[in-house]
């Protein structure tokens, strides 16, 4: 991409909007802002952002509803004051690529934006077909089935499951998952891994095992 990356910042707090937009422009992003959900949807259509920084708590539509209405190909970084696994899951399952809990550091937001954009530009070729137990993943068709029944996964859930299936039977740490699925080149918050594993287990029960103090593994129950 020759032009600067375009970032749409959506927040109904003027101070946060101004702080984020000024910071992102200083590090060479092209920025547009929106203060409401309705304005964000219009701005996304007109501006064509490469990424949306989206506050969950907006005055009209909440951030989750805005995310539902955005183009699926546009990465989303949620800003949220909610910091429990259950509260984060709703946004993550809409396909959000990452989240930052308020209050946040500007450096962390910039690092996460760069990591998301790096992932979106350097997607590896997906695995053709993977299978484990009664689970099948078709990388080319971006489909997952269990015992022949389709399972609907967000893009990041799909990437996480693909990584676990590629390493089936081996234990992978949260750091390895962050490196290979989120592609952080900084010390990222491993709680995002916990959030995605939490929800992926609901969709694919019984196969993702926790090895306490080490990480996760895809392993059929005995």
UniProtKB/TrEMBL annotation:
Domain Response regulatory, chain residue ranges per copy: 6-117
Positions of post-translational 4-aspartylphosphate modification: 55
OmpR/PhoB-type domain sequence ranges: 127-220
CDD domains: trans_reg_C
Gene3D superfamilies cross-referenced by the UniProt entry: 3.40.50.2300, 6.10.250.690, Winged helix-like DNA-binding domain superfamily/Winged helix DNA-binding domain
Pfam families: Response_reg, Trans_reg_C
SUPFAM superfamilies: CheY-like
Phosphoprotein among keywords: yes
Keyword Phosphoprotein set for record: yes
Keyword field: DNA-binding, Phosphoprotein
DNA-binding stretch(es), residue numbering of this chain: 127-220
UniProt protein name: Response regulator transcription factor
Upper classification of the organism: Bacteria, Bacillati, Actinomycetota, Actinomycetes, Streptosporangiales
């Amino acid at each position: 991409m020759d032009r600067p990356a375009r970032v749409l910042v959506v927040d109904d707090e003027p101070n946060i909007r101004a702080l984020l937009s000024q910071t992102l422009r200083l590090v060479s992003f092209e920025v547009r802002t929106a203060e409401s959900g309705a304005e964000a949807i219009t701005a996304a259509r007109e501006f064509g952002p490469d990424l949306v920084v989206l506050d969950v708590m907006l005055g009209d539509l909440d951030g989750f509803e805005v995310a539902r209405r955005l183009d699926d190909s546009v990465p989303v970084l949620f800003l949220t004051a909610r910091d429990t696994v259950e509260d984060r899951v709703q946004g993550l399952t809409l396909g959000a690529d990452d989240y930052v809990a308020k209050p946040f550091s500007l450096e962390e937001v910039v690092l996460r934006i760069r990591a998301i954009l790096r992932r979106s530009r350097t997607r590896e070729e997906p695995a053709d077909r993977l299978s484990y137990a009664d689970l099948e993943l078709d990388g080319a068709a971006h489909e997952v089935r269990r015992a022949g029944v389709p399972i609907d996964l967000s893009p990041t859930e799909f990437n996480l499951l693909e990584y676990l299936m590629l390493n089936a039977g081996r234990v992978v740490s949260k750091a390895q998952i962050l490196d290979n699925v989120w592609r952080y080149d900084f010390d990222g918050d491993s709680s995002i891994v916990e959030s995605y594993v939490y929800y992926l287990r609901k969709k694919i029960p019984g196969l993702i095992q926790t090895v306490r103090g080490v990480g996760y593994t895809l392993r059929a129950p005995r």
